[in-house]
Amino acid sequence: MVVPDLWSGRCQCGDHTYEASGIPDDPHLCSCEHCTRLSGAPAMAWVGFRRDALKWTGPAGEPTYFSTWPTLHRGSCSRCRTQLTSVADGSDMIMVTIFSLTRSGELAPVGHSYREAAAHWMSITLAPDPQRRT
Ligand SMILES: [Zn+2]
Ligand SMILES: [Zn+2]
């Protein structure tokens, strides 16, 4: 049995900090048009937690949300602009940026969304997906 763990994360300036419990779900990269433009980088790295298992603990509470699609909302710090979260309407999951986590080094992406749209020079080795292991 995997013991649910406590994870913490924060933005660069520390206005927003969070704690999430449980097993991080589906760590993956995304190279969609929105992720690359928002980050100014070839991909963003995301991992999911149950929405009710994440709480905001910093002085500024929840991040500021910006909708990149009518149904998809991305949270960032209004002071330091760190990208923190992505939430889809109707989902019970919240995605957090892997590198906002204190223990980001423990997670490796198992997938790469919009890989075909990624920069042609980007070459990565994905971790084996535990959910697809037989
Ligand atoms: Zn900040
Ligand atoms: Zn994306």
TrEMBL record:
Matches recorded under InterPro entries: CENP-V/GFA (IPR006913), Mss4-like_sf (IPR011057)
Domain CENP-V/GFA: 7-116
SUPFAM superfamilies: Mss4-like (SSF51316)
Superkingdom of the source species: Bacteria
Pfam family, one: GFA
Origin species: Streptomyces dengpaensis
PANTHER family (UniProt xref): CENP-V_GFA DOMAIN-CONTAINING PROTEIN-RELATED, GFA DOMAIN-CONTAINING PROTEIN
Keywords, alphabetical: Lyase, Metal-binding, Zinc
Family named by the database record: Belongs to the Gfa family.
Protein's recorded name: GFA family protein
